[in-house]
Specification:
It is a single chain. The protein is an alpha/beta fold. The chain contains twelve helices and 17 strands. The protein has a domain of 244 residues: Rossmann fold (3-Layer(aba) Sandwich), CATH 3.40.50. α1 crosses α9 and α6 runs parallel beside α7.
């Protein structure tokens, strides 16, 4: 599907961007002609470039050869229209993974979140529209927090979804679609790496509230969702993975095991939800099941496919609905390689 295509990943040096890059280079979606990693963090780009080019003694030659490589790195910022316009030239597919995603950070710096999470997507749409760029598909990477948003991060991501959905009416030759998923296991800033570090340090493991539940999704499952949407989504549709969830207290208990590590209840952080919600009651009336996914049909009637006549979901999709038991959760965490075991050298992470 992507053979011969030129692909852009904004925010490509993040946790998702790295896994998406690896999967795209694996050839499972075809062999792209070019894969561009676009971000403003030169240090992360440098580390990623060295890693992929297998260089042991990096020199400035890495930069000189950059534009001749299949995997190309470009410094830029989705906040800057000129930067976005330049990088979108001759691109066929865009994955917009650039985001400010830490909930507390967005609460304390809300306008910074708006700049990246709202103005960034609008710059992509504006560049395609004003320069009449022949881009085939733009995929917006969203989050559960965009559903019934109570924090700045979710509010800005909800606006990103609406900006991309509406863009289907302004850029008729480009398909804009979205994916929305919950907590990604082991991604930077998520709860499991935090618990690992706290356990290695002897505790305590901090839990905000004993009622909290979270969906459990690996980075590869997130990419599976993106690829499925790329293959199957209609204009303005949002793909939602159907995944299990767990109580955060159970996650902590299983990771701690029989170690003499205590837990501490700290209270909910600014803007934090007790349960993740991927589809609201209002959205459920235009959401359908499609294989292993739910699909939210576009809110704008002009984009609705009149031929879709499937039964709608009809109820909210929340992490409180399908909570795994401890045995199933243990098997999941072990299967994802996220348990810690004792060794003579101290704690180490299990590898699958």
């Amino acid at each position: 599907m992507l053979t011969g295509k030129r692909i852009l990943i904004t925010g490509g040096t993040g946790s998702l961007g790295k896994v998406l890059t690896r999967r795209l280079l694996s050839g499972e979606m075809g062999t792209p002609d070019k894969l561009i990693i676009f971000s403003r963090d030169e240090a992360k780009q440098h580390d990623m470039r060295i890693d992929y080019h297998n260089l042991k003694s990096p020199t400035d030659e890495v930069i000189y050869n950059n534009f001749r490589q299949l995997l190309e790195f470009r410094i830029g910022d989705v906040r800057d229209f000129h930067s976005v316009s330049a990088v979108l030239q001759d691109v066929d597919v865009v994955f917009n993974a650039a985001a400010l995603k830490q909930v507390p950070s967005c609460e304390y710096f809300p306008f910074e979140a708006i700049q990246t999470n709202v103005h960034g997507p609008e710059n992509i749409v504006r560049a395609i529209r004003e320069h009449k760029l022949p881009i085939g598909t733009v995929v917006g990477i969203s989050t559960d927090k965009a559903c019934k948003p109570v924090n700045v991060m979710g509010m800005t991501k909800a606006l990103q979804e609406r900006i991309f959905i509406k863009a289907n009416m302004d850029c008729r030759d480009t398909r804009f679609i979205c994916v929305r998923y919950g907590n990604v296991l082991a991604s930077r800033g998520s709860v499991i790496p935090l618990f690992h570090e706290q356990i290695r340090s002897g505790g305590p493991v901090t839990i905000t509230t004993t009622d909290m539940t979270r969906f459990l999704l690996s980075l590869d499952q997130a990419v599976d969702t993106i690829f499925t949407a790329l293959r199957r989504a209609g204009r303005g549709e949002t793909y939602i993975p159907r995944v299990p969830s767990a109580k955060v207290t159970d996650i902590a208990d299983i990771l701690i095991g029989d170690r003499p590590v205590k837990t501490k209840i700290t209270g909910i952080r600014p803007g934090e939800k007790i349960h993740e919600i991927l589809i609201s009651e209002e959205e459920a009336n235009r959401s359908i099941a499609r294989d292993d996914y739910y699909v939210i049909l576009p809110i704008l009637p002009e984009l609705m496919d009149e031929h879709v006549r499937q039964t709608v979901l009809g109820h909210e999709y929340s992490s409180a609905d399908n909570v795994m038991g401890r045995d199933e959760l243990y098997r999941n965490l072990k299967g994802f390689g996220l348990l810690l075991e004792q060794s003579k050298s101290g704690e180490r992470e299990l590898l699958r």
